[in-house]
Amino acid sequence: MRVVTSEIMRRIDRIAIDEMVIPGIELMHNAGEAVSRIAAKYFEELSIGGYIGIFTGPGNNGGDGWVTARLLKNRAFEVRVFSTVDPQTLAGDAALAYEEARDSGVSFEICRSEVPPLDCMGLAIDALLGTGAKGRPKGVIADFVRALSISGLPIIAVDNPTGADSDSGAVEELAVPAVATVTFGLPKLGQFIYPAREFVGRLFVADIGIPEAAAEKGLGDFDLRIDRPIELKSMLPMRPSDGHKGVFGNVAVIAGSSGMTGAALLSAEGALRSGVGLVETIVPEGLTDIVDLGLKESVVRGVPQVARRRCFSTRALGDILRLVSGADSIALGPGIGTHRETVDLTARLMPKLSKPTVLDADGLNCIANLRHREIAVRFGDSVIMTPHPGELARLLNTPIDVILCNRFNNMQLWANELGAEVLILKGSPTTISSPDGPIYINISGNDGMATGGCGDILTGLIAGLLAQGLSPLDASRLGVYIHGLAGDLAEKRLGRRGMIAGDIVASIPEAFTTLENFEQGAVNSLIVI
Protein backbone atom coordinates (compact mmCIF):
# COMPACT_ATOMS: atom_id res chain seq x y z
CA MET A 1 0.00 0.00 0.00
CA ARG A 2 1.32 3.44 -0.95
CA VAL A 3 1.73 6.10 1.75
CA VAL A 4 1.57 9.85 1.22
CA THR A 5 2.27 13.21 2.77
CA SER A 6 -0.57 15.65 3.42
CA GLU A 7 0.54 17.78 0.46
CA ILE A 8 0.44 14.82 -1.93
CA MET A 9 -2.98 13.79 -0.62
CA ARG A 10 -4.29 17.32 -1.24
CA ARG A 11 -2.90 17.13 -4.77
CA ILE A 12 -4.63 13.80 -5.37
CA ASP A 13 -7.91 15.25 -4.06
CA ARG A 14 -7.62 18.23 -6.38
CA ILE A 15 -6.94 16.02 -9.40
CA ALA A 16 -9.99 13.89 -8.56
CA ILE A 17 -12.25 16.91 -8.08
CA ASP A 18 -10.96 19.36 -10.70
CA GLU A 19 -9.70 17.10 -13.49
CA MET A 20 -11.90 14.04 -13.08
CA VAL A 21 -14.96 16.04 -12.08
CA ILE A 22 -15.82 14.04 -8.97
CA PRO A 23 -17.90 16.27 -6.66
CA GLY A 24 -16.09 17.07 -3.44
CA ILE A 25 -19.29 16.54 -1.46
CA GLU A 26 -19.42 12.98 -2.82
CA LEU A 27 -15.96 12.28 -1.41
CA MET A 28 -17.03 13.88 1.89
CA HIS A 29 -20.15 11.71 2.00
CA ASN A 30 -18.01 8.60 1.47
CA ALA A 31 -15.60 9.71 4.18
CA GLY A 32 -18.41 10.27 6.67
CA GLU A 33 -19.94 6.92 5.80
CA ALA A 34 -16.64 5.16 6.59
CA VAL A 35 -16.27 6.98 9.92
CA SER A 36 -19.87 6.32 10.91
CA ARG A 37 -19.47 2.62 10.13
CA ILE A 38 -16.34 2.29 12.28
CA ALA A 39 -17.82 4.39 15.09
CA ALA A 40 -20.98 2.25 15.13
CA LYS A 41 -18.85 -0.89 15.23
CA TYR A 42 -16.84 0.34 18.23
CA PHE A 43 -19.95 1.59 20.01
CA GLU A 44 -21.65 -1.77 19.69
CA GLU A 45 -18.64 -4.04 20.29
CA LEU A 46 -17.57 -2.13 23.42
CA SER A 47 -21.16 -2.11 24.73
CA ILE A 48 -20.90 1.62 25.29
CA GLY A 49 -23.68 3.57 26.98
CA GLY A 50 -24.49 7.24 26.51
CA TYR A 51 -24.44 9.33 23.37
CA ILE A 52 -21.84 9.92 20.65
CA GLY A 53 -20.19 13.35 20.81
CA ILE A 54 -18.77 14.70 17.55
CA PHE A 55 -16.27 17.57 17.80
CA THR A 56 -16.03 19.61 14.61
CA GLY A 57 -13.68 22.33 13.43
CA PRO A 58 -13.72 25.03 10.75
CA GLY A 59 -12.70 23.10 7.61
CA ASN A 60 -13.42 19.99 5.59
CA ASN A 61 -12.43 17.76 8.49
CA GLY A 62 -15.33 19.34 10.36
CA GLY A 63 -17.48 18.73 7.29
CA ASP A 64 -16.63 15.03 7.53
CA GLY A 65 -17.80 15.20 11.13
CA TRP A 66 -21.17 16.70 10.14
CA VAL A 67 -21.71 13.93 7.58
CA THR A 68 -20.79 11.35 10.23
CA ALA A 69 -23.31 12.88 12.65
CA ARG A 70 -26.13 12.72 10.11
CA LEU A 71 -25.40 9.11 9.16
CA LEU A 72 -25.10 7.95 12.77
CA LYS A 73 -28.42 9.63 13.57
CA ASN A 74 -29.93 7.79 10.60
CA ARG A 75 -28.62 4.57 12.18
CA ALA A 76 -30.63 5.44 15.31
CA PHE A 77 -27.64 6.47 17.44
CA GLU A 78 -28.00 9.43 19.78
CA VAL A 79 -25.51 12.02 18.54
CA ARG A 80 -24.58 15.57 19.40
CA VAL A 81 -22.19 17.88 17.55
CA PHE A 82 -19.94 20.35 19.36
CA SER A 83 -18.69 22.92 16.87
CA THR A 84 -15.77 25.28 17.51
CA VAL A 85 -17.20 27.74 14.95
CA ASP A 86 -20.63 29.00 14.00
CA PRO A 87 -21.54 26.43 11.31
CA GLN A 88 -23.26 29.22 9.36
CA THR A 89 -19.74 30.49 8.55
CA LEU A 90 -18.61 27.22 6.96
CA ALA A 91 -17.84 27.28 3.25
CA GLY A 92 -17.93 24.87 0.31
CA ASP A 93 -18.54 21.19 0.92
CA ALA A 94 -18.37 21.61 4.70
CA ALA A 95 -21.29 24.08 4.54
CA LEU A 96 -23.33 21.59 2.50
CA ALA A 97 -22.53 18.82 5.00
CA TYR A 98 -23.69 21.03 7.90
CA GLU A 99 -26.92 21.96 6.15
CA GLU A 100 -27.70 18.29 5.45
CA ALA A 101 -27.07 17.42 9.10
CA ARG A 102 -29.15 20.35 10.36
CA ASP A 103 -32.03 19.47 8.04
CA SER A 104 -31.97 15.86 9.28
CA GLY A 105 -32.40 17.08 12.86
CA VAL A 106 -28.88 16.59 14.24
CA SER A 107 -28.51 18.32 17.60
CA PHE A 108 -25.54 20.66 17.90
CA GLU A 109 -23.96 23.25 20.14
CA ILE A 110 -21.52 26.05 19.30
CA CYS A 111 -18.56 26.07 21.71
CA ARG A 112 -16.28 28.99 20.90
CA SER A 113 -15.02 29.71 24.39
CA GLU A 114 -15.35 26.68 26.63
CA VAL A 115 -15.57 22.90 26.48
CA PRO A 116 -18.97 21.40 27.29
CA PRO A 117 -19.29 18.77 30.02
CA LEU A 118 -18.47 15.30 28.75
CA ASP A 119 -20.81 13.58 31.18
CA CYS A 120 -23.08 10.92 29.67
CA MET A 121 -20.95 10.76 26.51
CA GLY A 122 -19.98 7.19 25.61
CA LEU A 123 -17.88 7.74 22.47
CA ALA A 124 -16.17 10.81 20.99
CA ILE A 125 -15.33 11.57 17.38
CA ASP A 126 -12.46 13.99 16.66
CA ALA A 127 -13.22 16.01 13.52
CA LEU A 128 -11.46 19.18 14.69
CA LEU A 129 -8.48 19.59 12.36
CA GLY A 130 -7.39 17.74 9.24
CA THR A 131 -4.12 16.28 8.02
CA GLY A 132 -2.80 19.66 6.89
CA ALA A 133 -2.79 21.17 10.39
CA LYS A 134 0.66 21.95 11.78
CA GLY A 135 1.93 22.85 15.21
CA ARG A 136 0.24 22.94 18.58
CA PRO A 137 -3.56 23.31 18.60
CA LYS A 138 -4.68 26.74 19.81
CA GLY A 139 -7.67 28.38 21.44
CA VAL A 140 -10.83 26.42 22.03
CA ILE A 141 -9.54 23.56 19.85
CA ALA A 142 -6.63 23.17 22.28
CA ASP A 143 -9.14 23.13 25.13
CA PHE A 144 -11.13 20.41 23.35
CA VAL A 145 -8.00 18.33 22.77
CA ARG A 146 -6.94 18.70 26.39
CA ALA A 147 -10.39 17.69 27.66
CA LEU A 148 -10.59 14.70 25.33
CA SER A 149 -7.09 13.53 26.28
CA ILE A 150 -8.04 13.20 29.96
CA SER A 151 -11.64 12.07 29.44
CA GLY A 152 -10.94 8.36 29.26
CA LEU A 153 -13.46 8.12 26.43
CA PRO A 154 -12.86 5.89 23.41
CA ILE A 155 -12.18 8.35 20.56
CA ILE A 156 -12.37 7.86 16.79
CA ALA A 157 -10.17 10.32 14.87
CA VAL A 158 -11.33 11.55 11.47
CA ASP A 159 -8.43 11.29 8.98
CA ASN A 160 -5.81 12.08 11.66
CA PRO A 161 -5.77 12.76 15.42
CA THR A 162 -5.83 16.50 16.12
CA GLY A 163 -2.41 17.67 17.33
CA ALA A 164 -0.46 14.84 15.69
CA ASP A 165 1.51 15.95 12.61
CA SER A 166 0.48 13.74 9.70
CA ASP A 167 3.82 14.29 7.92
CA SER A 168 6.54 14.31 10.59
CA GLY A 169 4.81 12.37 13.37
CA ALA A 170 5.53 15.22 15.77
CA VAL A 171 3.27 15.99 18.72
CA GLU A 172 3.74 19.38 20.36
CA GLU A 173 2.42 18.66 23.85
CA LEU A 174 -1.24 18.18 22.88
CA ALA A 175 -2.88 15.51 20.71
CA VAL A 176 -6.07 13.49 20.79
CA PRO A 177 -5.37 9.87 21.90
CA ALA A 178 -7.55 7.88 19.50
CA VAL A 179 -8.42 4.21 19.84
CA ALA A 180 -8.88 4.23 16.07
CA THR A 181 -8.24 6.59 13.17
CA VAL A 182 -10.17 6.43 9.90
CA THR A 183 -7.93 7.99 7.26
CA PHE A 184 -9.04 8.62 3.69
CA GLY A 185 -7.64 7.47 0.35
CA LEU A 186 -4.13 6.54 1.44
CA PRO A 187 -2.38 6.38 4.83
CA LYS A 188 -0.26 9.37 5.84
CA LEU A 189 3.45 9.10 6.60
CA GLY A 190 3.30 10.64 10.07
CA GLN A 191 0.80 8.01 11.19
CA PHE A 192 3.67 5.50 11.29
CA ILE A 193 6.19 7.71 13.08
CA TYR A 194 6.45 8.11 16.85
CA PRO A 195 5.12 9.80 18.85
CA ALA A 196 2.11 10.35 16.55
CA ARG A 197 1.78 6.61 16.00
CA GLU A 198 0.84 6.19 19.67
CA PHE A 199 -2.09 8.59 19.20
CA VAL A 200 -3.42 7.01 15.98
CA GLY A 201 -4.57 3.76 17.55
CA ARG A 202 -5.87 1.23 15.08
CA LEU A 203 -5.59 2.66 11.58
CA PHE A 204 -8.40 2.13 9.08
CA VAL A 205 -7.73 3.22 5.49
CA ALA A 206 -11.03 4.06 3.78
CA ASP A 207 -11.60 4.05 0.04
CA ILE A 208 -13.71 7.18 -0.52
CA GLY A 209 -13.95 6.91 -4.29
CA ILE A 210 -10.77 8.59 -5.48
CA PRO A 211 -9.90 7.07 -8.88
CA GLU A 212 -6.68 5.10 -9.08
CA ALA A 213 -5.59 7.31 -11.98
CA ALA A 214 -5.84 10.41 -9.78
CA ALA A 215 -3.71 8.73 -7.12
CA GLU A 216 -1.07 7.64 -9.61
CA LYS A 217 -0.85 11.11 -11.15
CA GLY A 218 -0.69 12.81 -7.77
CA LEU A 219 1.95 10.45 -6.40
CA GLY A 220 4.37 11.03 -9.27
CA ASP A 221 7.81 9.68 -8.31
CA PHE A 222 6.99 9.55 -4.59
CA ASP A 223 7.10 5.86 -3.70
CA LEU A 224 6.78 5.00 -0.03
CA ARG A 225 4.90 1.79 0.76
CA ILE A 226 3.55 0.12 3.86
CA ASP A 227 4.39 -3.55 4.20
CA ARG A 228 1.11 -5.31 5.01
CA PRO A 229 0.80 -8.88 6.31
CA ILE A 230 -1.53 -9.84 3.47
CA GLU A 231 1.39 -9.41 1.03
CA LEU A 232 4.09 -10.68 3.39
CA LYS A 233 2.17 -13.89 4.02
CA SER A 234 2.59 -14.80 0.35
CA MET A 235 6.39 -14.62 0.75
CA LEU A 236 6.60 -17.37 3.37
CA PRO A 237 8.89 -20.15 2.08
CA MET A 238 7.16 -23.33 0.98
CA ARG A 239 7.74 -26.34 3.23
CA PRO A 240 7.20 -29.68 1.47
CA SER A 241 5.84 -32.31 3.82
CA ASP A 242 8.60 -34.74 2.86
CA GLY A 243 11.37 -32.14 3.22
CA HIS A 244 14.58 -32.75 5.18
CA LYS A 245 17.21 -30.40 6.56
CA GLY A 246 19.07 -30.34 3.26
CA VAL A 247 15.97 -28.99 1.53
CA PHE A 248 15.52 -26.04 3.87
CA GLY A 249 18.91 -24.43 3.41
CA ASN A 250 22.19 -23.88 5.25
CA VAL A 251 23.28 -20.64 6.95
CA ALA A 252 26.82 -19.76 7.97
CA VAL A 253 26.98 -17.27 10.84
CA ILE A 254 30.33 -15.49 11.27
CA ALA A 255 30.12 -13.77 14.64
CA GLY A 256 31.53 -13.22 18.11
CA SER A 257 34.65 -12.09 19.91
CA SER A 258 35.79 -11.94 23.53
CA GLY A 259 32.90 -10.60 25.61
CA MET A 260 30.50 -10.79 22.65
CA THR A 261 29.64 -14.47 22.46
CA GLY A 262 25.99 -13.57 23.07
CA ALA A 263 25.87 -11.88 19.68
CA ALA A 264 26.92 -15.11 18.00
CA LEU A 265 24.40 -17.13 20.00
CA LEU A 266 21.46 -14.82 19.27
CA SER A 267 22.28 -14.48 15.58
CA ALA A 268 22.56 -18.25 15.21
CA GLU A 269 19.29 -18.83 17.06
CA GLY A 270 17.58 -16.19 14.91
CA ALA A 271 18.66 -18.21 11.86
CA LEU A 272 17.57 -21.50 13.43
CA ARG A 273 14.12 -20.05 14.24
CA SER A 274 13.65 -19.00 10.60
CA GLY A 275 12.89 -22.57 9.54
CA VAL A 276 16.29 -23.17 7.95
CA GLY A 277 17.66 -26.73 7.91
CA LEU A 278 21.19 -26.20 9.21
CA VAL A 279 23.21 -23.42 10.86
CA GLU A 280 26.98 -23.43 11.19
CA THR A 281 28.35 -20.86 13.60
CA ILE A 282 31.92 -19.72 12.91
CA VAL A 283 33.71 -18.07 15.85
CA PRO A 284 37.28 -17.35 16.97
CA GLU A 285 38.77 -20.65 18.11
CA GLY A 286 39.06 -19.57 21.76
CA LEU A 287 35.28 -19.19 21.99
CA THR A 288 34.14 -22.55 20.63
CA ASP A 289 33.61 -24.18 24.04
CA ILE A 290 31.51 -21.24 25.27
CA VAL A 291 29.36 -21.10 22.15
CA ASP A 292 29.01 -24.89 22.10
CA LEU A 293 27.42 -24.76 25.54
CA GLY A 294 24.84 -22.20 24.43
CA LEU A 295 23.94 -23.69 21.04
CA LYS A 296 22.63 -27.23 20.98
CA GLU A 297 21.22 -27.08 17.45
CA SER A 298 24.07 -25.40 15.57
CA VAL A 299 27.40 -26.79 14.43
CA VAL A 300 30.14 -24.60 15.92
CA ARG A 301 33.43 -24.07 14.06
CA GLY A 302 36.52 -22.35 15.42
CA VAL A 303 38.98 -20.43 13.22
CA PRO A 304 42.31 -18.65 13.91
CA GLN A 305 42.12 -15.70 16.26
CA VAL A 306 44.27 -12.77 17.31
CA ALA A 307 46.45 -13.98 20.18
CA ARG A 308 44.93 -13.26 23.59
CA ARG A 309 42.25 -11.03 22.03
CA ARG A 310 39.97 -13.87 20.90
CA CYS A 311 38.75 -12.02 17.80
CA PHE A 312 39.00 -13.00 14.14
CA SER A 313 42.51 -12.92 12.68
CA THR A 314 43.47 -12.34 9.05
CA ARG A 315 44.82 -15.92 9.19
CA ALA A 316 41.21 -17.13 9.40
CA LEU A 317 40.49 -16.16 5.78
CA GLY A 318 41.14 -19.56 4.19
CA ASP A 319 39.29 -21.50 6.89
CA ILE A 320 36.25 -19.24 6.70
CA LEU A 321 36.06 -19.53 2.92
CA ARG A 322 36.25 -23.30 3.18
CA LEU A 323 33.57 -23.45 5.87
CA VAL A 324 31.09 -21.20 4.05
CA SER A 325 31.50 -22.90 0.69
CA GLY A 326 28.51 -25.16 1.32
CA ALA A 327 26.27 -22.46 2.78
CA ASP A 328 23.28 -20.96 0.99
CA SER A 329 23.59 -17.63 2.81
CA ILE A 330 25.92 -15.89 5.26
CA ALA A 331 25.43 -13.67 8.30
CA LEU A 332 28.50 -11.60 9.07
CA GLY A 333 29.25 -9.10 11.78
CA PRO A 334 27.44 -9.55 15.11
CA GLY A 335 29.94 -9.05 17.90
CA ILE A 336 33.11 -9.50 15.79
CA GLY A 337 34.67 -6.27 17.06
CA THR A 338 36.82 -3.80 15.13
CA HIS A 339 40.34 -4.97 15.87
CA ARG A 340 42.74 -4.03 13.05
CA GLU A 341 43.11 -7.65 11.93
CA THR A 342 39.33 -8.18 11.95
CA VAL A 343 38.84 -5.08 9.82
CA ASP A 344 41.48 -6.29 7.36
CA LEU A 345 39.93 -9.75 7.30
CA THR A 346 36.56 -8.21 6.42
CA ALA A 347 38.14 -6.32 3.51
CA ARG A 348 39.70 -9.52 2.15
CA LEU A 349 36.68 -11.72 2.86
CA MET A 350 33.83 -9.71 1.33
CA PRO A 351 34.94 -9.90 -2.33
CA LYS A 352 35.36 -13.68 -2.03
CA LEU A 353 31.95 -14.48 -0.54
CA SER A 354 29.93 -16.03 -3.34
CA LYS A 355 26.65 -16.32 -1.41
CA PRO A 356 24.18 -13.59 -0.40
CA THR A 357 25.31 -12.03 2.86
CA VAL A 358 23.63 -10.12 5.68
CA LEU A 359 26.09 -7.55 7.01
CA ASP A 360 25.34 -6.14 10.45
CA ALA A 361 26.77 -4.57 13.60
CA ASP A 362 30.57 -4.74 13.73
CA GLY A 363 30.64 -6.00 10.16
CA LEU A 364 29.24 -2.59 9.21
CA ASN A 365 31.66 -0.85 11.57
CA CYS A 366 34.54 -2.65 9.88
CA ILE A 367 33.29 -1.42 6.49
CA ALA A 368 32.98 2.11 7.90
CA ASN A 369 36.59 1.89 9.14
CA LEU A 370 37.75 0.88 5.67
CA ARG A 371 35.72 3.61 3.98
CA HIS A 372 37.19 6.23 6.29
CA ARG A 373 40.64 5.01 5.29
CA GLU A 374 39.51 5.36 1.65
CA ILE A 375 39.90 1.64 1.05
CA ALA A 376 37.37 0.46 -1.50
CA VAL A 377 35.30 -2.54 -0.42
CA ARG A 378 33.94 -4.88 -3.07
CA PHE A 379 31.27 -7.52 -2.57
CA GLY A 380 31.35 -10.95 -4.16
CA ASP A 381 27.57 -11.43 -4.06
CA SER A 382 24.48 -9.48 -3.02
CA VAL A 383 24.72 -7.82 0.39
CA ILE A 384 21.96 -6.82 2.78
CA MET A 385 23.07 -4.10 5.20
CA THR A 386 21.11 -3.65 8.43
CA PRO A 387 22.40 -0.52 10.21
CA HIS A 388 20.75 1.53 12.90
CA PRO A 389 21.02 5.32 12.34
CA GLY A 390 24.33 5.61 14.20
CA GLU A 391 25.93 2.84 12.15
CA LEU A 392 24.66 4.33 8.91
CA ALA A 393 25.99 7.74 9.93
CA ARG A 394 29.43 6.16 10.42
CA LEU A 395 29.23 4.33 7.10
CA LEU A 396 28.35 7.52 5.22
CA ASN A 397 30.54 9.78 7.41
CA THR A 398 27.60 12.13 7.91
CA PRO A 399 25.85 13.53 11.01
CA ILE A 400 23.15 11.31 12.46
CA ASP A 401 20.66 14.18 12.20
CA VAL A 402 21.06 14.05 8.40
CA ILE A 403 20.18 10.35 8.49
CA LEU A 404 17.10 10.88 10.65
CA CYS A 405 15.82 13.81 8.56
CA ASN A 406 16.18 11.97 5.24
CA ARG A 407 15.28 8.38 6.08
CA PHE A 408 12.12 8.52 3.95
CA ASN A 409 13.81 10.21 1.00
CA ASN A 410 17.38 9.00 0.55
CA MET A 411 17.28 5.25 1.20
CA GLN A 412 17.85 4.37 -2.47
CA LEU A 413 20.70 6.87 -2.73
CA TRP A 414 22.40 5.47 0.37
CA ALA A 415 21.98 1.85 -0.78
CA ASN A 416 23.57 2.73 -4.10
CA GLU A 417 26.47 4.58 -2.47
CA LEU A 418 27.21 1.64 -0.16
CA GLY A 419 26.82 -1.01 -2.84
CA ALA A 420 24.06 -2.78 -0.92
CA GLU A 421 21.44 -4.76 -2.78
CA VAL A 422 19.12 -4.00 0.15
CA LEU A 423 19.50 -1.40 2.88
CA ILE A 424 17.52 -1.83 6.11
CA LEU A 425 17.54 1.23 8.37
CA LYS A 426 16.43 0.02 11.78
CA GLY A 427 14.31 2.32 13.92
CA SER A 428 10.77 3.48 14.55
CA PRO A 429 9.71 2.68 11.92
CA THR A 430 12.24 0.47 10.16
CA THR A 431 12.60 1.27 6.45
CA ILE A 432 13.79 -1.05 3.69
CA SER A 433 14.95 -0.23 0.17
CA SER A 434 17.02 -1.37 -2.78
CA PRO A 435 18.99 1.15 -4.89
CA ASP A 436 16.26 1.47 -7.51
CA GLY A 437 13.06 0.33 -5.80
CA PRO A 438 10.43 1.78 -3.49
CA ILE A 439 11.00 2.40 0.20
CA TYR A 440 9.03 -0.02 2.39
CA ILE A 441 7.92 0.92 5.89
CA ASN A 442 7.52 -1.82 8.49
CA ILE A 443 4.59 -1.54 10.90
CA SER A 444 5.42 -4.26 13.46
CA GLY A 445 7.51 -3.91 16.61
CA ASN A 446 7.60 -1.80 19.78
CA ASP A 447 10.04 0.03 22.06
CA GLY A 448 10.52 -3.05 24.23
CA MET A 449 12.76 -4.26 21.40
CA ALA A 450 15.26 -1.47 22.13
CA THR A 451 17.50 -3.92 23.95
CA GLY A 452 20.93 -5.43 23.37
CA GLY A 453 21.00 -8.42 21.02
CA CYS A 454 17.74 -7.65 19.22
CA GLY A 455 19.55 -6.68 16.00
CA ASP A 456 21.64 -9.85 16.09
CA ILE A 457 18.45 -11.91 15.98
CA LEU A 458 17.27 -10.00 12.91
CA THR A 459 20.57 -10.69 11.13
CA GLY A 460 20.22 -14.43 11.59
CA LEU A 461 16.52 -14.43 10.77
CA ILE A 462 17.03 -12.68 7.43
CA ALA A 463 19.97 -14.95 6.58
CA GLY A 464 17.75 -17.96 7.30
CA LEU A 465 15.07 -16.72 4.93
CA LEU A 466 17.71 -16.09 2.26
CA ALA A 467 18.93 -19.67 2.64
CA GLN A 468 15.38 -20.89 2.01
CA GLY A 469 15.35 -19.25 -1.41
CA LEU A 470 13.84 -15.81 -0.85
CA SER A 471 15.27 -12.86 -2.77
CA PRO A 472 17.30 -10.36 -0.73
CA LEU A 473 14.44 -7.84 -0.81
CA ASP A 474 11.73 -10.35 0.13
CA ALA A 475 13.89 -11.89 2.86
CA SER A 476 14.49 -8.41 4.27
CA ARG A 477 10.85 -7.34 4.22
CA LEU A 478 9.55 -10.61 5.67
CA GLY A 479 12.37 -10.89 8.20
CA VAL A 480 11.86 -7.37 9.53
CA TYR A 481 8.12 -7.92 9.89
CA ILE A 482 8.42 -11.31 11.63
CA HIS A 483 11.10 -9.88 13.94
CA GLY A 484 8.82 -6.99 14.93
CA LEU A 485 5.78 -9.25 15.28
CA ALA A 486 7.78 -11.52 17.59
CA GLY A 487 8.50 -8.44 19.68
CA ASP A 488 4.80 -7.55 19.73
CA LEU A 489 3.86 -11.06 20.85
CA ALA A 490 6.50 -10.99 23.59
CA GLU A 491 5.21 -7.59 24.70
CA LYS A 492 1.68 -8.95 25.10
CA ARG A 493 2.94 -11.60 27.50
CA LEU A 494 5.62 -9.68 29.38
CA GLY A 495 5.14 -5.95 28.87
CA ARG A 496 7.68 -3.71 27.18
CA ARG A 497 9.75 -2.62 30.13
CA GLY A 498 11.36 -5.93 31.02
CA MET A 499 11.69 -7.58 27.61
CA ILE A 500 15.07 -8.97 26.58
CA ALA A 501 16.34 -10.31 23.28
CA GLY A 502 15.81 -13.91 24.38
CA ASP A 503 12.08 -13.23 24.79
CA ILE A 504 11.94 -12.02 21.19
CA VAL A 505 13.79 -14.94 19.65
CA ALA A 506 11.60 -17.36 21.60
CA SER A 507 8.51 -15.70 20.07
CA ILE A 508 9.59 -16.11 16.43
CA PRO A 509 7.81 -19.48 15.92
CA GLU A 510 4.55 -17.96 17.16
CA ALA A 511 5.10 -14.97 14.87
CA PHE A 512 5.39 -17.27 11.85
CA THR A 513 2.25 -19.13 12.88
CA THR A 514 0.37 -15.88 13.38
CA LEU A 515 1.30 -14.69 9.90
CA GLU A 516 0.45 -18.07 8.36
CA ASN A 517 -3.03 -17.82 9.89
CA PHE A 518 -3.44 -14.15 9.00
CA GLU A 519 -6.76 -12.80 7.81
CA GLN A 520 -7.22 -9.14 6.94
CA GLY A 521 -7.49 -7.10 10.14
CA ALA A 522 -6.47 -9.93 12.45
CA VAL A 523 -2.92 -9.10 13.53
CA ASN A 524 -1.87 -5.65 12.48
CA SER A 525 -3.03 -2.13 13.13
CA LEU A 526 -3.63 -1.15 9.47
CA ILE A 527 -6.92 -2.24 7.97
CA VAL A 528 -8.26 -1.41 4.52
CA ILE A 529 -12.01 -0.81 4.40
Q: Would you give an account of this structure?
A:
- With 529 residues, the protein is an alpha/beta fold.
- The chain folds into two domains: 2-221, YjeF N-terminal domain (Rossmann fold); 231-236 and 250-520, UDP-N-acetylmuramoyl-L-alanine:D-glutamate ligase (3-Layer(aba) Sandwich).
- Helices cover 40% and strands 15% of the residues.
- The protein has 20 helices and 19 strands.
- The strands form two sheets. An eleven-stranded mixed sheet has the order 1-9-18-17-16-15-14-13-10-11-12, sandwiched between helices. Strands 4-3-2-5-6-7-8-19 form an eight-stranded parallel sheet, covered by helices on one side.
- α9 (261-272) packs across α17.
Q: In angstroms, what is the radius of gyration?
A: 26 Å
Tell me which CATH architecture of the largest domain applies here: 3-Layer(aba) Sandwich
Total DSSP helices? 20
Question: Class of the largest domain, according to the CATH hierarchy?
Answer: Alpha Beta
Strand order of the largest sheet: 1-9-18-17-16-15-14-13-10-11-12
Write down how many β-strands occur, each being a DSSP E stretch of 2 or more residues.
19
Q: CATH topology of the largest domain, which one?
A: UDP-N-acetylmuramoyl-L-alanine:D-glutamate ligase
* Percent of residues in beta strands: 15-25%
Percent of residues in helical segments? 40-55%
